[in-house]
């Protein structure tokens, strides 16, 4: 005779996905529904930090790809300029999309973190034991401190994308409006500046990813 099986993690995940799309990512109803299937705000926070970290990793690769395409364009022959513009513009649009994804993921982290900390503050009042209350309060403050450090690192990485996108857009537009040897000459002059900006962006993102991994490890303890 087979033993009865209980709800498996995969089923819980599917339920969570359904509830997430039904209620919306930041509503109280959504968090309440998540808790009913055993997924608490702390779990959601970890998941969203991982999502923000992964989005930054993907953005790094996209910006590297865009720089590589930029480097190819500055050595191209005049007869291929229109095609070069189309490829470079596609890289710019992909980079813009990757940057938006990073910002959206960071917003999602802030949303659930705020809900988690508010709940934690409220629940401190429910303790009867003063020792337990103080211990939990210290844990809350420590978690908030580590969270603020991680979030600041995320925002530094996020802001470092802005000058890259602006420079990239300027160069793509200039190539679009000129499509001649003069345009390529201007792009050659801009290449080292853009490379420096992307190198700085990648450094900031690596630091943010490192900080995110540490926060995830700490909060899972």
List the topology elements.
Elements: H1 9-23, H2 28-36, H3 41-73, H4 81-124, H5 130-159, H6 161-178, H7 181-220
Helix pairs in contact: 1-2, 3-4, 3-7, 4-5, 4-6, 5-7, 6-7
Describe the 3D structure.
- This protein has helices at residues 9-23, 28-36, 41-73, 81-124, 130-159, 161-178, 181-220.
- By secondary structure, it is mainly alpha-helical.
- The protein has a single domain (40-220), classed as Four Helix Bundle (Hemerythrin (Met), subunit A), CATH 1.20.120.
- Helix 5 runs antiparallel to helix 7.
- It is elongated and about 80 Å long.
Sheet/helix structural class: mainly alpha
Listing every helix as H and every strand as E from the N terminus to the C terminus, the arrangement reads: HHHHHHH
Portion of residues within helices: over 70%
Integer average pLDDT: 87
Shape: elongated
Tell me the CATH topology. Four Helix Bundle (Hemerythrin (Met), subunit A)
Instruction: Output the CATH class name.
Output: Mainly Alpha
Number of E-state strands: 0
Notable characteristics:
Four Helix Bundle (Hemerythrin (Met), subunit A), disordered N terminus, mainly alpha
